[in-house]
Amino acid sequence: MTYRTLMVGLDASPTRFARTDLAIALARDFGAHLIGVAPTGLVDLPAAPEAAAMLGDDAATAWELLIEQAQSAAAEFHERCKAARLRSFEALVDRAPHAPSFITHAQCTDLLVMSQPDPAHSGHRQDRAVLEQVLMHSARPTLVVPYVQRGLLGMDRMLVGWNESREAVRAMTEALPLLRRAGEVSLSHWHHGGEAVRVRQHMHGLRQWLAFQGVDVEEQISPTTAPFGEAMLSAACDGTIDLIVVGAYGHPRWMEDLFGGTSRTLLDAMTVPVLMAH
User: How many Cβ atoms from other residues are within 10 Å of residue 141's Cβ?
Assistant: First the structure.
């Protein structure tokens, strides 16, 4: 298993530069085809038909502006790929809402690259909603790049967050091409007490499976009183981790919204790229 086709989401946010450069570097490393998808989004019309009709030419002008912005993002992506001398790439303008566009096009790729929304960006709330929809509904894994990212993806040390969920298995499996390139991989589990022996037995089997896949891991089972997401971020910081691999939204979204969760914690406070799969 390797990555043959990568995709990067294009928009007008300032984070697009770092995410595009990282995606270009990954595509070059894997000899993969890179697709840049620039959705237009939709014009936000009033709910009342009478009010929408009153906009008239303003709505048409707004739609033309959205198309122009998407075309500009696609052209900018094309020029960055060309300047990097990437062998195989294409830029697509999609006249569709952002989340459905990314979800649909990602079906034809191995990995989607997106960014953590920047709280300082005026469209932060919308960017966050789009990312969450993609993580929940995409058939492919998503590599989320921190908005503070300035360099390319490091390959030295990687952390796989393990919680015995289907989502964790999928994320770990989808990350194999990256894990095989890592210098060190930590298979890590945090618990609030009373389950270390059972989890250790299971993780021994996972370690063997990963070894068969060409990935040598170090098992880490640690008690913690902190929420799991905070424990994971702390370990990543202490261990100078380059990449976190973790399942996304292992609990129902309404529980994450009400009580928080690992996925929301990582999306709010990540400092290194995170590969997530639901």
Answer: 23
Q: Does domain 157-277 match CATH 3.30.1370.10?
A: no
Kindly report the number of other CB atoms within 10 A of residue 98's CB atom: 25
Q: Is the pTM of this model over 0.85?
A: yes
**pLDDT tens digit at each of 278 positions of the chain:** 899 999 999 998 889 999 999 999 999 999 999 999 999 998 764 544 544 444 455 667 888 999 999 999 999 999 999 999 999 999 999 999 999 999 999 999 999 999 999 998 888 899 999 999 999 999 999 999 999 998 899 999 999 999 888 999 999 999 999 999 999 999 999 887 766 677 788 888 999 999 999 999 999 988 888 888 998 999 888 878 999 999 998 655 544 443 348 888 999 999 999 999 99
Give CA–CA dist 63/76, Å, rounded.
20
Domains 5-145 and 157-277 share a fold: yes
User: Chain centroid to CA 253: how far?
Assistant: 17
Structural domain spans, the chain: 5-145, 157-277
> Do 186 and 158 form a contact (C-beta atoms < 8 A)?
yes
CATH architecture of 5-145: 3-Layer(aba) Sandwich (3.40)
